[in-house]
Amino acid sequence: MTDDSRPAPPRDRTAAVIPAAGRGVRLGPGAPKALRTLNGMPMFIHAARALAASRSVTLVVVVAPPDGAPEVKSLLDTYALPANAPGEGWGSADFLVVPGGDNRQESVRRGLEALPQDIDIVLVHDAARPLVPVETVDAVIGAVRAGAPAVVPALPLADTVKEIAPAAPGDPEPVVATPERARLRAVQTPQGFDRATLLRAHENAPVDGEGATDDAGLVERLGEPVVLVPGHEEAFKVTRPLDLVLAEAVLARRRVNDGY
Ligand code: CTP
Ligand code: MG
């Protein structure tokens, strides 16, 4: 009997949680940010497809605006139809929709609660990063599979960053420090985790205040190691109006390059 005849060892099962429950205050008035469209398709659908495009991802949990779960469900049904999903496929991932909370940390927690027991690796990905390439998703999953409990895609900074002290409204802000730029990284998503580590991180997270904007930060609080892998410029977060212009331009470039 050759090695080839043995069944393949079971793969780690990977799920993606997509927090999409934010209002998008910085984007300005309109629908909740994740429901705003890019090239005619809601932003969270772009994000869900980007994660489902990874062959490793078997389940995508979309965390909808608190009163928007039925709408998010029906949009997923609409866009998951093969006729509406040209180009890169959806893979064979299943989808779940749960209602979100008052801040991102609470929304992610609700997404984690919806995970079935057989999931080993969890990705957390902002709906507001709709254009992340599948290569970045796979690089994060690969690093978790290789043994890192928490993996974050990150890029060097273009701007120098200054630490400031709080000032009264309208007063100039005093600078207290200028960290060396070469040692700083801007972090993106999807962040990838060993499931047990991420659950423990959220169980131990403080629940008061604004909540964490970064899941890996909660793992750092446990004293567990967090490692970075290269991020991607197309994984930028749609935050302000100009980001919509950039996102549409990236999609237009892809249509030219990929012919769809
Ligand atoms: N998010 C969430 N639940 C919240 C707040 C944010 O699921 N209560 C999600 C957003 O939908 C987004 C991601 O967390 O996909 C990153 O948050 P951010 O970019 O800050 O989005 P918003 O909170 O929607 O934007 P803003 O802060 O400008 O209101
Ligand atoms: Mg926000």
Task: Kindly describe this structure.
- Helices cover 30% and strands 20% of the residues.
- By secondary structure, the chain is of the alpha/beta class.
- The chain has a single domain, classed as Spore Coat Polysaccharide Biosynthesis Protein SpsA, Chain A (Alpha-Beta Complex).
- The N and C termini lie far apart (46 Å).
- The mean pLDDT is 93.
- Cytidine-5'-triphosphate is lined by residues 19-26, 33-34, 63, 100-104, 107, 126-128, 237, 239.
Helix content: 25-40%
Radius of gyration: 19 Å
Domain unit count: 1
- The SSE string, one letter per element, is EEEHEHEHEHEEEEEHHEH
Gross geometry: globular
Enumerate the distinct ligands.
cytidine-5'-triphosphate, magnesium ion
Q: CATH architecture, please?
A: Alpha-Beta Complex
CATH topology, which one? Spore Coat Polysaccharide Biosynthesis Protein SpsA, Chain A
How many individual helices?
7
Percentage of residues in strands: 15-25%
Distance between the termini: 46 Å
Largest sheet: 8 strands, mixed
- Would you identify the regions where 5 or more consecutive residues have pLDDT less than 50? none
Q: How many E strands?
A: 12
- What is the level 1 CATH name? Alpha Beta
CATH homology superfamily: Spore Coat Polysaccharide Biosynthesis Protein SpsA, Chain A
